[in-house]
Amino acid sequence: MIRMKEAMNLNFSIQSDVYSFGVFLLELISGRKAVSDQCIIQWAQSFQESSDISVIADSRMAGGFTSQSMKELLSLTARCVNPTSEQRPSMSSVEAEIQRIREQEISLTAVMAEGTPTVTLGSQLFRTSR
Prior knowledge:
Number of domains: 1
CATH topology: Transferase(Phosphotransferase), domain 1
CATH architecture: Orthogonal Bundle
Order of helices and strands: HHHHH
CATH class: Mainly Alpha
């Protein structure tokens, strides 16, 4: 697998920003730092075929998301870190997709009974609402 600096070829562009944002999303989702012995992208790819989201998602986020939304976010993240810059989505596409996933997550968690803690996508990293 190509490492981060090699994938970006040290040329700063909008597409390298998308790549960096994908790495940032992986850090948020996994709770791992990108600067580790094993490249975070390689680590995440090793679990790509797994249907068990808990192997990638930070355990502190347990129960804070639906598996459907997390799978879609991980798929978006994989597209962001594609080694071929031309195959990465635009940042506006990334933003629209995250908004769609967020709205989906809200609609899926809004059906919970009143008083049940609900968490919107990513907010578990900061706080839960009760």
